[in-house]
Amino acid sequence: YSLFPSSPKWTSRVITYRIVSYTSDLPHFVVDQIVAKALSMWSEQIPLDFKRVRFGTANIMIGFARGAHGDQYPFDGPGNTLAHAFAPGPGLGGDAHFDKDEYWTDGSSLGINFLVAATHELGHSLGLAHSSDPEAVMYPTYGNGDLLDFSLAEDDIKGIQRLYGKRNDL
Amino acid sequence: LPLPEEAKSVSELQWDQAQHYLKRFYFHDTKTKDINSLVIKLKEMQKFFGLPMTGELNPHTIEIMKKPRCGVPDVAE
Q1: DSSP codes of every residue in A109-144
Q2: Chain B: closest CA distance from residue A83 (Å)
Q3: Is the distance from CB of A83 to CB of A64 less than 8 angstroms?
Q4: Quick count: other Cβ atoms within 10 Å of Cβ B36?
């Protein structure tokens, strides 16, 4: 695993998130469920809790967009770059953006598995950079491996716990 | 940009795509004409992905560059 320069992290124990826009590929409630599941995978390992807000500014703003979308990193259409997210911090910090031009799935059909991508991007939102361990969720390329029992790898857990400690330390 | 000997089998388009990739994910300065800079960044990318660090734009390296991926750079700026 690796961390971003200066190892930015959230200092509050409760982190807010807001889903500001959706893909037309999945029902809204499925996107909501998948984001909650992705966050819970991280929160099971560290002493952070996530609270969804529906209005205003949250620590982590999550959305789908195509092309230029207000940051310095426009999306590139189907394929190649699927999503990106920013390290913890104010403003764009922590925000996770997904390319609306991809075909997003919940794993029941061919396409980009949103749970995998969301877990990866939210790892960035929490302060993890890319891992060079091919088994890690934080590996930068999207794989076609077995997603039925998708979970964090040991490397991901070591990385996130280096930033925040273990949940049972509380 | 002068192409190294081993690049003869690589198309100009592939070199452009590789430079774009390295610029985006490994902070390669595409304005520099220094072939060493490109080779260094290629090696950096190959090291990250556990490939032999040849500094050559070989088929395996190109294959990884074409994979769908996260838009966050692989190395710290």
Answers
A1: SSSEEHHHHHHHHHHHHHTB---S-TTSTT-SBPP-
A2: 5
A3: no
A4: 9
Is the minimum CB–CB distance between A79 and chain B shorter than 8 Å?
A: yes
d(CA A22, CA B69): 20
Residue of B nearest to A75 (CA): B71
- Judged by a CB distance cut-off of 8 A, whether residue A73 touches chain B is yes
Residue in chain B closest to A4 (alpha carbons) equals B76
Written as tens digits, the pLDDT of chain A (170 aa) is: 999 999 999 999 999 999 999 999 999 999 999 999 999 999 999 999 999 999 999 999 999 999 999 999 999 999 999 999 999 999 999 999 999 999 999 998 999 999 999 999 999 999 999 999 999 999 999 986 667 789 999 999 999 999 999 997 55
Catalytic residue list of A: 121
CA-closest candidate to residue B43, choices B57, B29, B23: B57
